[in-house]
Amino acid sequence: MTDETHKEQFLEVLEENIRIVQKIAGVYTRNARDRDDLINDITLELWKSFRKFKGNSKVSTWMYRVALNTAMNYQRKMTRDKMFSSLNDLKVEPVGWLNEDGNSEKTALLNRCIEELDDLNKGFILLYLDGHSHKEISEITGISKTNVGTRIGRIKEQLKELVIKKSDYYGLK
To answer: pLDDT tens digit string along 42-60?
Structure first.
């Protein structure tokens, strides 16, 4: 198959199934700019894997698989970037965040927020803040690496909301 034929086939498949890409991008993003970025990312990943698609499943199944994996990776990246931004705003380092003297108001605020988490989530975020990778946390907890990433992403969002609430309450903006 020539490169031009390959390209034409891909564009035809994409055009016939573009709603899959748009639907997934719409669910995994909150604004038009992020949605367009995700659509571009998904399209690129579809293009990169198109030659490998052998037709063992329906085209729509293959597209959903690629699109969902790309969207979940995109969301993890966005969540991680937002949390690092939030932690930087707090001037708290992810590694070594727990200092012995505890005199930092912002460290104390983060500690108060962590205390409000349930026991399992406290364990996950403590491992994360101590610098453990998702793989290491997976090995420690016996939960898959993917589930660790998802759980940590949710915990970060929960902490972000708590920090914002408590920052307002304690006047620590």
So the answer is: 999 999 999 899 888 789 8
